[in-house]
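All the exercises in this workshop are built on plain-text protein records. Sequence and backbone structure share a record, each on its own labelled line. The structure tokens are whole numbers drawn from a learned vocabulary of backbone shapes. The record below serves as our worked example for the rest of this section.
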Amino acid sequence: MGGSKKMVTLKTKNMKSDKKQVLFYTMIHSILFSILLISCYSQDYKPYVYQSPTNINDEISVGTLDEVGINTQLVTKGINRILSGRHGEIHSLLMYKDGKLVLEEYFEGSKFKWDAPGHRGEWVSWKPDMLHRIHSDTKSITAICIGIAIDQGFIGSVDQSIFDYLPDHQHLKKDGKEKITIEHLLTMTSGLHWYEWGAPYSSAENPIIGIWYSDLDPVSFILNGSLEHAPGTHYSYYGGHQILLGEILKYASGMTIDEFSKQYLFEPLAIDTVNWSTKFEDGVFEAAGGLEMRPRDMAKVGITFLNDGVWQSTQILDKHWIQKTANPYPGNERINVPGTDERRVGYSYSWWTKSITDGSKSSNIYWAGGWGGQRILVAPEYNTVIVFTGGSYLSKVKQMKLVEKYLLPALNSKI
């Protein structure tokens, strides 16, 4: 899952000439690094022993698996599979159920580093207070900010043309693009020809990377794309949609997305440390993949959605927005996401959706999903939130099997 992975320090013109060489060496280094990583994980590991989370007075109540009726043996099996490396590089796993954080585990893994082999930087033991790059979970946070902006009256509705809030780009309001609405950006159905999954993130041919190589400003680059489908009729994954949403929010509210999210989302959730780490030279924020958060704070976002937009008796987001988020946008019901074990899923207001079967029970879940294995998963019928962070950037993310085979079944089978 996408989001821009490039920093403003790239020397774009030089990179254009040798991008094939960069890609070749990146692949070689990644293969070698993956072999080393598998070797590290294949060593004997200490079997997992459950410990309940610590109360750190961050407005999240804590408890034990047993208190909320979760099968400890199944969870233990799942975590031992993580420790053995069978589910890729997972950095953290948190579970919240019935009003309590009952599982909080951190593992060893590498920090994200764009220009390192496999995009893996320093190897660390992850801790609760460490910020983690959440990549395309950022898209879901940006979508939340749009929902709040509508609640606050800064934006009229999702049905408005995007050009109502892009005054400096009216010259691109043509060729059918004037029909692109805010909802089309949220659901990635703008009709623009951009497609992020068609090229590696190490290549300038990937349009989310191509923005950094262009002489155009980011908004112009995105909107200069040709319109190949009628807006609202065709899904195409591209983080440029959320970059536009960030600029729409800026014009509508007079606040950049870091300022807006701090005032209207993070401070009400008692989240005091986040980092919008990436922006373009002209000050446009990379609102599709540049946010860094702590896993507990990611859980707070999920808990707010689980509670119909309410956090600690405060309505953060309208419950109707939550309903839109929990269900796929018409036409977005069967998307095959590359590089994951999720199989066919839906896409809503910048969140993913899926119907799963646990025995004879069918349930709907939805999640914010980011490159490498970042996830804020909401399971309303289980009254549960599950959070992952990870570093499987060039290998398959294998978290859904863990969720479906161990974590969700553990909620129904206490031992």
Q: What stands out?
A: The chain has two domains: 26-128+294-410, 138-266. The chain has a mean pLDDT of 90. The chain has twelve helices and 15 strands. The longest strand covers residues 361-370.
